[in-house]
Every structure is written in C-alpha cells, then in structure tokens.
Amino acid sequence: MKMGDKESSFTKDMRKATRNVHSISDALVNAKLAFALSDDGVWADGLLIFYEVFKFLERNVPETILPVAFHRRTAFEKDLSFYLGKDWEKSYQMRKEVAKYVEHLQSLKERNAMLLVAYVYHLYMGLLSGGQILQKKRRLAKNFTSGVDGAENGMAVTDFGSVPIHELKTRMRRLIDQLAQSYSDETKSLLIEESEKVFQYNNSIIRTVKDVNKVGLRKFLCFSGLFFILYLIYKVFTT
C-alpha cells in the first residue's frame, strides 16, 4: 500500500467498511443529540456517556498510537465541571451500557490490544469532524462569544487550541495508515470488524442520553432543518 495513495489507504478501508452500520434507524437514534444544540442538560449527559470511553483509551493506548496532542480526558472533566459542578464525580455512577462498552475495550486490551486502534481512529476523528460542526452550531444556539476560551464556556472537548483541525485529522490518518503497513491481513480484517462495533457501542450509549423525551420528537421531526441536523449528528461518529 502506498502511503500517498488515498485510494488504497487503510483508514479509507475502515471508513468504507462502516457505511452499512449507518442505517436510517441509527441516524434517528443519533438525532437525540440534536437537542444538545440548545439544552445544556442533554449536552452534559452526552459528554458524560463518552467520558469513560475516552478516559480508558488515553490510559491504555500508548502515545505511539494515541499522541498526547489528541488526549481529551482533562477537557471532558473541565466541561463536566462547568455543567454539573466541580463535585460532579461524588455522585457519578457509570451506567450499565457505558460499563459494558468499557468492559469490551478491556477485553480487547487483554486479548489483542492492537484492535483498540479502531476506537482511537473513529472516536477521535469524530471529534475532529462532526464534533467540530456540532459545537459551532451549539455556540451559535447558545450565543457564546467566539473569543471566549472553550474551557471557560463548557466547550473544551472540541477545543484543540491553535492547532488547525485539518492538520490534526491529517496526522491521525497518516499515523493509522503508517501503523497498518506492519499489520497482518488478519489484524486488518479484525480491525475492520471492530470498526463496525465502534458505532454499535456508540449507538448503545447514545440511547441512554437523558432528558431527550422531554421534547416532542414528533414535533422536532417536522422542523425544516431536520435533514441538516441529522447530517451533523451522523458526521460526529462516521468520519
């Protein structure tokens, strides 16, 4: 595989392999997060369900695969403190769906840690792609001043400072493609299979986001911006 040939890159193969996972039903489930554009409670709960996943990866994946520049644990904690208060961890309990997700990651670490690469790629690229779009829309909905630092207004998770997002995305793709050059065909096949599970587990925990039912979903579906919103949510975890 030539590194300069995008058509033969392993990251492209991973993206193509997950297309079937993104059914209409999954898109509607993910649409729950659209309420987070203006609802702090929904946004905070969305952060909370993914916090443990990112924390696990950053504690268990070496920097050669997940460089510190991509780490988000501290950013998650800053945002959660902003929305839930500085003592949020005292009353925090991991919900069973999240625990099941983390247990799966732990089993991969023990069985074949290389398969965690699928989670690193899809989750962090999600933050760098759809996550950025969703945060910009949320900033507009909440009327935040563009000059305010992300850590000060509950937007630290998607704030990577002065480093251009496109550079981080390129770096992530290049890193995974370079690693894949040394993988066996069997490992690549397993990574493709695990890539589909990334989205399956993501959907399972997104379904647990609270407070969404307080807003009429049927009424929301009538809004003229429906398809645009679905596109934003779809992009969060599909890039």
Tags for this model:
239 residues, mainly alpha, disordered N terminus
Structure characterization notes:
The chain contains 11 helices and no strands. The chain has 239 residues and is an all-alpha fold. Helix 1 packs across helix 9 (185-206), helix 3 (40-60) packs antiparallel against helix 4 (73-84) and helix 6 (117-128) runs antiparallel to helix 8 (165-180). The longest helix has 22 residues, at 185-206. The radius of gyration is 18 Å and the shape is globular. It starts with 9 loop residues before the first helix and ends with a helix. Mean pLDDT is 80; it is low at 1-7 and 215-231.
Radius of gyration: 18 Å
Structural category: mainly alpha
Uncertain segments are 1-7, 215-231
The major pleated sheet works out as: none
Mean pLDDT: 80
Helix content: 55-70%
Number of helices in the DSSP assignment: 11
General form: globular
What share of residues are in beta strands? under 5%
In short:
With 239 residues, the chain is mostly helical. The chain has eleven helices and no strands.
Protein topology:
Layout: H1 10-17, H2 24-30, H3 40-60, H4 73-84, H5 96-112, H6 117-128, H7 130-142, H8 165-180, H9 185-206, H10 217-221, H11 226-236
Helix pairs in contact: 1-9, 3-4, 3-5, 6-8, 6-9, 7-11
